Amino acid sequence: MGKRRLFGTDGVRGTANTDPMTADLALKLGMAAGHTFTRGEHRHTVVIGKDTRLSGYMLEPALTAGFIAVGMDVVLVGPVPTPGIAMLTRSLRCDLGVMLSASHNTFEDNGIKLFGPDGFKLSDDIESEIEDLISNGMEDLRAPPDKLGRARRLDDGTGAVRYIEFVKNTFPRNLRLDGLKIVVDCANGAAYRVAPTVLWELGAEVIPIGVNPDGFNINKDSGSLHPEHMAEQVGTHQADIGIALDGDADRLVVCDETGRIIDGDQIMAAIATQWHESGQLQGNAVVATVMSNLGLERYLSSIGLCLERTKVGDRYVSERMEEGGFNLGGEQSGHVILGHHATTGDGIMAGLQLLAILVEKQKPASEILRLFEAVPQVLQNVRLADKSIADRVLEASLVKDAISAAEGRLNNSGRLLIRKSGTEPLIRVMAEGDDADEVNAVVRDVASVIEATAA
């Protein structure tokens, strides 16, 4: 397989109506992916969901045309969270699932995420296979006129209703949310109807914000990337907890009743502790990426658990969970994968697990959802003129020498991580350790060398 060019850390992503995120590419991707997942003689079907950004109206019909052109039927479900598409792909016995979303990015961007018939994101090898088909032309993929696919839209909200019931069933049956006041920020994204409905039907008093999408305001000053608005509303309404989702609701950030932010590492620690105590945690480990804080690793070790690390991307976390038989994993950014229930990160589902802990412990969130102190961690992004020069910059001798010197300065009391972004023209420089001043200095020095080399 060749090196992937279109696919990044989480599908294909870019500025809408600009290469590669164009209607033309969406059509070709639909044809190539549809052909790749046409296996056997049955009638093949793909389910397509989207978030609320304007460009979904352009990309959805283009993808639909591509799938129909290779003989695949299309089920359109409209706005639904990304984990909902993972679930519906399996529930509807589809051969492929597609989510149109650029996750936490603002409306100018969009993305295409693909799920196999098992509900898992595609492997690097399958993505490379799809890219090869796109590069080699579409002529041989077209179905004859009598074999074209058909499209139908679930206008009655069947897809969202199925997902709501699915998520509610992951909450302990003997518990209710009666008496809890919850602020939920839906980022004007895909969960703007689903998340408040789930919480209300389970008994909570719900204060919904970020639930008025207009095609342009997805993730704008709201959601998991801007949790300060949620925290402010928690104080205003004297709520017990706040939950902030991103645009496609596959990640969350939480705040306690005091407004203090709780990130993905703390969320995983809380769920791991609860599941470990109740005997639900499989493999005595949590799977996280190289970005998770050293404090999480130390905390898990203190209660007899291990932290397994993968490269960045929740699909790599999911793959390791499958390989090792683990059932809890995620990312510091708030992707949390609950292997008992889901194949990908699910912000609403992870939030329900935290709420179950609050109900069972009968204590405020500030006492039970912050289990460790994070060590100082600094991340600096170095922007490049083009993604294509990242490898050359990282291979430069001056950069390698700077990295080696930085690792020596941190010694055994911290970590240094240098990686290129899978979705943007960036090189990310991250360091953490017990000495905050040293961590800041290390990041600053390495980033300056990278900037000078890239200039």
How would you briefly describe this protein structure?
The protein has 455 residues and is an alpha/beta fold.
Description:
- With 455 residues, the chain is an alpha/beta fold.
- It folds into three domains: 12-156, Alpha-D-Glucose-1,6-Bisphosphate, Chain A, domain 3, CATH 3.40.120; 169-368, Alpha-D-Glucose-1,6-Bisphosphate, subunit A, domain 3 (Alpha-D-Glucose-1,6-Bisphosphate, Chain A, domain 3, 3-Layer(aba) Sandwich), CATH 3.40.120.10; 377-454, TATA-Binding Protein.
- The chain is 38% helix and 20% strand.
- It contains 15 helices and 18 strands.
- It is globular, with a radius of gyration of 22 Å.
- It starts with 11 loop residues before the first strand and ends with a helix.
